[in-house]
Design brief:
By secondary structure, this protein is α/β, with parallel strands linked by helices. The chain contains five helices and eight strands. The two termini are 30 Å apart. The structure holds adenosine-5'-triphosphate and magnesium ion.
């Protein structure tokens, strides 16, 4: 152990969670890093039809990441948080995106009634905050993205893959 302080690198390799599962960590030193990361996510063709879950405490930065991600994909206009509506649909050039926030989701009947089953069966990118609240109904996420606040502006972010699609994307992000 050394007493020397050091700034963590933006990209760190994490330990694989389990055999064959890519899991990697990044540090965002401020919202500009969050935006840059969102731009890199938006540039991944492998995420076009993916399901990405966003984990982290209240105020961790899930919606902030999604807003930068949607902008980078070319979504115009006001980007509302889906906290009350549970889902907000978005259109980017040639791409449908659904942004879920399951924080207030507590009635499984809503899954059918609100057409969520149809959304998950459709092509397009699905992003979900608080996915734990609908875990019994949702498919396996291609990528689970965990955000943890280090302080007011820094975040530790880890990505783990649940499918081969997710693994390929995480590998591409490390390149
Ligand atoms: N590096 C960073 N990345 C993301 N957000 C940051 C960062 N630094 C500061 N913030 C701030 O942290 C807050 C994150 O709020 P946000 O609504 O995105 O959280 P959330 O995870 O979606 O919370 P909730 O669970 O309530 O939906 C915003 O005020 C944002 O400006
Ligand atoms: Mg949010």
């Amino acid at each position: 152990m050394t007493a020397a302080q050091h700034t963590p690198p933006i990209v760190e390799s994490g330990r694989p969670q389990e055999a064959g599962t890519a899991c990697h960590r990044w540090i965002w030193h401020g919202e500009e890093d969050t935006q840059r990361f969102a731009q890199r996510l938006a540039a991944q063709p492998g995420l076009r039809d993916a399901y990405v879950t966003l984990h982290g405490d209240l105020g961790a930065g899930k919606t902030t990441l999604v807003r930068h991600w949607l902008r980078a994909l070319g979504v115009q206009g006001r980007i509302k948080s889906p906290t009350y509506a549970v889902v907000e649909p978005h259109e980017a050039p040639g791409l449908a995106i659904w942004h879920f926030d399951f924080y207030r989701f507590d009635d499984p009947r809503e899954w059918e009634d609100a057409g969520f089953r149809d959304i998950f069966a459709s092509p397009g990118l699905k992003l979900a905050e608080w996915p734990e609240k609908a875990a019994a109904l949702t498919p396996v996420a291609d990528i689970a993205l965990h955000i943890e606040a280090i302080d007011e502006i820094q975040r530790q972010v880890s990505l783990s893959a649940g499918t081969p699609v997710g693994r390929a994307v995480i590998q591409a992000l490390q390149a």
